[in-house]
Write a structure and sequence with these properties.
By secondary structure, the chain is an alpha+beta fold. The chain has 16 helices and 52 strands.
Length: 941
């Protein structure tokens, strides 16, 4: 906003504020009478009287951390301005109070205006200010991984506890584009027993039916949830929310299908209570008729009135406040807190439906794909932080200082950039320029910590080789189970290498150029990989890497490894690659994967040629960065034919085939890699994208016939129908996922594993995946204040969101049995969190050449994260049940240490419950999809 326009804005605002105050003094009784008449008339039209309702009025402001403006403008202007107005209004209007979420906003105000922050603390003590949310920011509801959601609450609630002496009881995600199914568990274990949102009212063709419901996550945790009709803006009284929803017949409407012949039943909104004595556990598989059958004619009489200007902040206007005070004076509403609203709703808990599913947002299905770079950057940061915290925790056990402050700072940057308009790709270009700076800072700082902690550990390890001429390297496994997958590190070219374990056994190794795009550069330590091209790496495949520990190997510059690798057979028609588990064929004419034969099953797993790039014109009617066009599948874009299909690498570790597709304006390169002793086929795609207004997917066709498709969600798994019959289930065409999705029956299946992709759809025959990799849309218009120059030339939308180079790192995994027996979730973790190679010197040390510090014995639970505790030197171990069954788990600690104390805490590392532990192990029950946080006090022997 220009200086002139900014000054004019504040002058007008001041005039409005003063005039409202004068008007309130001189005409308050007249206003109240008018409000009474208008309110009564509106309710009478609905067949209601004011005394039929109990309304709680809540003043708030939805503030976007970044969207059509920079994040620092929210920090420096929008938050201080909104908060100071709220404080002024709370003093000017006795009885008015203000509600605000997001620890990040409070910390910003604390930094830029300490005096204002003190006033907020005082107002909170006086009941004029209410904290809600408990999260660091209001993030996207689907894409952050489980640990990120835990940290949103950990840092948000602890900030509130430190500065206000309490935590928020209500999770607050007003404007996120859908909500993963595991949020109730994460919120409840973070101190929040209620949930507030509003976005489902924007849903699309199928209106989300319930305004008030008990939301139940896969583990059984429940939070009472309220869906308001107000998103971002203001609401004097929710008359529309009360309108025809009073009648069960309204709930179930008949809507003509496109063909004009048949008709289908769809949901509408309802505030009706259930019939006395009935129960309803609903999901996307529940029909409208089934819901209607248990609805009474009784309206839920408790009403939430949420008001205040939002998106860019500002908060309740004087006129809005006066209106609510007048309604309160008339006895029609009560200015209060969201907790008071929920306490009134709890009285009707026996007559409220239970929702046992995700909350899917039909309208903005493109946000899982738009701005591909930010998605990969987020996943990369999450994986790196998992690795750094593991190495730092282990180094801490051996005497190193744990970098808690540095890691907290890094985490907060990552969490900020998970905001629900940043991570989804729905902000202006400048927001992503800011995010790129943030993520570069994250990578640089986290890499330095990783390098430091691994150096500390390696210096204590006895790395002395059995003979001279061997260079020791330490391979660190940040995951909580033993693994055997390919690792690599950068070496000099034009040299042959051999790799040996500590016993002198040669390990399969191979020198290859990282043409897919990995290179160490000035921003990386020697323990992490960054994106570039043309760098030689030494790849090798250990037999086993210990859980949360290390193993020492030795590298010799000598001759090339002679151990046989995957077999390659070439003909004019195809290239065939075979290892001991699978056999893969690539069609030379099409460049596609024509066969994936699983030798364990004696079965072909592909139903049609796969690894197929498919692209479509995508021109939604509105919100191009958010939405997918309803008809995009009818508008395919021709993809270039292959100009090259060639074996580019073969050796003891893997065989790699390159497929090039040169087009004008868009080109692709794809690498297909089969490694020794592995059923996983890695499929990496590079693209130079120049199709405007397009969506690009990669298709994988399987033979699997099943009625459900499974996908990872934050610290849980969701199963969706492959053949949906109910409209709102059919609308879930673009399905969010974390690291994997899977099509299985009881005998076999195929999993799709990804790095940094977040959505897929099913193929037409419902037996394959189309993973969304690029959505090249148009940026939204910027707000005037986003620029410090004349805004007129800047209000034209910037160019496309996703032109230029992109990467899609994918893999398909054929497996016997279903995804549970195949431990697909562990394979996906391994693909996303590589073991780290650290080069060190030959030296003596007290630590052995190989060690596991922590491991877990369990049929289905796993260690998801370790870190140092927030309040002391204990180690926190996050355990997650991964298959949806009750189980037991035994946590084992390396014999170098003994357990001196063990407690289970909530996700905030508070409310400890003592556990019985042995000297070196701890056995606990773990419920289905349960997240457990164990805090261990350890002492070296």
């Amino acid at each position: 906003m220009s200086k002139v326009s900014r000054k004019s804005f504040f002058v007008l605002a001041l005039i409005f504020l003063l005039s409202a105050s004068v008007r309130a003094e001189k005409t308050s009784e007249i206003q109240i009478e008018r409000i009474k008449q208008a309110h009564t008339k509106r309710l009478q039209a609905l067949g209601l009287k004011p005394e039929d309702l109990t309304a709680i009025s809540i003043g708030k402001s939805h503030i976007d951390a970044a969207w059509l403006w920079h994040w620092y403008q929210t920090r420096d202007d929008k938050c201080p301005r909104t908060f100071s107005k709220a404080i002024e209004h709370s003093l000017q209007y006795p009885g008015f109070s203000y509600t605000q979420s997001s620890g990040q906003y409070y910390e910003w105000v604390q930094e830029v205006d300490p005096e204002l922050f003190k006033k907020i603390q005082e107002a909170e003590k006086d009941g004029r200010w209410h904290i809600v949310g408990g999260m660091w920011i209001e993030p996207d509801g689907n894409m952050p991984e489980g640990e990120s959601f835990v940290r949103q609450f950990l840092y948000g609630q602890r900030f509130f506890l430190t500065h206000f002496g309490k935590i928020a009881q209500t999770a607050w995600m007003e404007d996120s584009f859908g909500y993963n199914w595991n949020l109730p568990q994460i919120a409840l274990k973070s101190g929040a027993k209620y949930m507030y949102t509003a976005k489902p009212t924007w849903n699309g063709h199928n209106i989300f039916p319930f305004h008030i419901f008990n939301w139940q996550s896969p583990d059984g945790s429940q939070v009472l949830t309220f869906v308001s009709q107000t998103v971002g803006g203001n609401n004097y009284f929710p008359y529309n929310e009360l309108a025809p929803m009073r009648y069960p017949d309204y709930f179930l409407s008949e809507i003509t299908k496109v063909d004009g012949n048949s008709r289908e039943a769809r949901f509408r909104e309802t505030r009706l209570l259930l019939k006395p004595g009935t129960k309803l556990i609903a999901s996307y598989h529940t029909s409208p008729a089934e819901i209607k059958s248990v609805l009474s004619n009784e309206l839920m009489p408790v009403v939430g009135v949420f008001y205040g200007v939002g998106d860019g902040g500002h908060g309740p206007l004087p006129g809005e406040i006066e209106n609510q005070l007048a309604l309160q004076k008339l006895g029609y509403t009560k200015i209060g807190t969201v907790e008071q609203l929920f306490q009134l709703l709890e009285k009707y808990s026996e007559r409220i439906a239970t929702w046992k599913d995700e909350i899917y947002f039909e309208y903005h299905q493109g946000v899982f794909t738009t701005h591909e770079w930010i998605k990969r950057a987020n996943r990369k940061a999450e994986a790196l932080l998992r690795t750094v915290e593991a190495s730092a925790s282990i180094a801490h056990l051996f005497g190193a200082d744990y970098p808690l402050a540095q890691l907290t700072k890094i985490w907060k940057i990552v969490l900020l950039n998970q905001f629900h308009d940043i991570l989804p790709g729905s902000s202006i270009r400048e927001v992503y320029e800011d995010a790129e700076k943030h993520h570069k800072e994250v990578q640089q700082d986290a890499n330095q910590l990783l390098n430091s902690t691994l150096n500390y550990i390696s210096q204590k390890i006895n790395t002395q080789p059995a003979e001279s001429g061997l260079e020791p390297i330490i391979v660190f496994n940040p995951l909580g189970w033993q693994r055997s997958d390919v690792v690599r590190y950068e070496v000099k070219a034009d040299t042959s290498y051999q790799v040996f374990d500590e016993r002198g056994k040669e390990i399969p190794s191979q020198l290859a150029y990282a043409e897919m795009g990995y290179k160490s550069d000035s921003t990386c330590s020697n323990a992490i990989v960054c994106e570039s091209s043309g760098v030689p790496y030494l790849y090798f495949k250990p037999d086993a890497l210990p859980a949360l520990g290390w193993k020492t190997f030795y590298v010799k510059s000598s001759q090339e490894c002679k151990i046989p690798g995957p077999v390659v057979r070439e003909s004019p028609e195809k290239i065939e690659i075979e290892n001991n588990l699978i056999k893969v064929s690539i069609n030379r004419r099409t460049g596609l994967l024509s066969s994936l034969y699983d030798k364990r099953l004696n079965k072909e797993m592909l139903g049609a040629e796969s690894n197929k790039i498919v692209a479509y014109q995508d021109r939604p009617r509105e919100y191009p960065a958010w939405n997918l066009a309803e008809d995009y599948l009818t508008k395919p874009i021709p993809v270039p034919e292959p100009s090259l299909v060639k074996v580019v690498d073969k050796g003891a570790v893997f065989v790699r085939v390159l497929v090039e597709r040169k087009g004008n304006p868009t080109s692709f390169k794809q690498w297909i890699t089969v490694s020794i002793d592995s059923p996983l086929v890695e499929l990496i795609t590079w693209s130079d994208m120049h199709w405007k207004n397009s969506i690009t997917k990669i298709e994988y066709n399987t033979i699997v016939e099943t009625d459900k498709v499974s996908a990872e969600i934050p610290y849980a798994v969701i199963e969706r129908s492959t053949h949906p019959t109910i409209p709102w289930d059919q609308a879930r065409t673009e399905m969010p996922m974390e690291k994997w999705a899977d099509l299985s029956n009881k005998d076999f299946g195929v999993a799709l594993i990804n790095f940094g992709k977040y959505a897929f759809s099913l193929t037409d025959d419902r037996k394959g995946f189309r993973v969304s990799v690029i959505k090249n849309a148009i940026y939204p218009n910027a707000a005037m204040e986003a620029y410090d120059v004349n805004p007129i030339t800047k209000l034209i939308p910037e160019k496309e969101t996703d032109p230029g180079e992109h990467w899609a790192h994918l893999a398909i995994l054929s497996h016997p049995g279903d995804w549970k027996s195949a431990k697909v979730y562990k394979s996906a973790y391994e693909y996303n969190t590589p073991a780290v190679v650290y080069r060190t010197s030959s030296h003596n040390g007290a630590l052995p050449k190989e060690a596991s510090l922590f491991s877990l014995e369990s049929e289905s639970a796993y260690i998801a994260q370790i870190k140092k505790a927030e309040d002391d030197g204990d180690i926190v171990v996050r355990i997650v049940e991964g298959e949806g069954r009750d189980t037991s788990a035994t946590l084992k600690v390396n014999p170098m240490f003994k357990i001196k104390s063990a407690v289970e805490t909530d996700l905030l590392e508070l409310n400890p419950k003592p556990l019985n532990a042995g000297e070196g192990s701890l056995s606990i029950p773990v419920g289905h999809f349960e997240i457990k946080t164990i805090k261990l006090g350890l002492k070296s022997k």
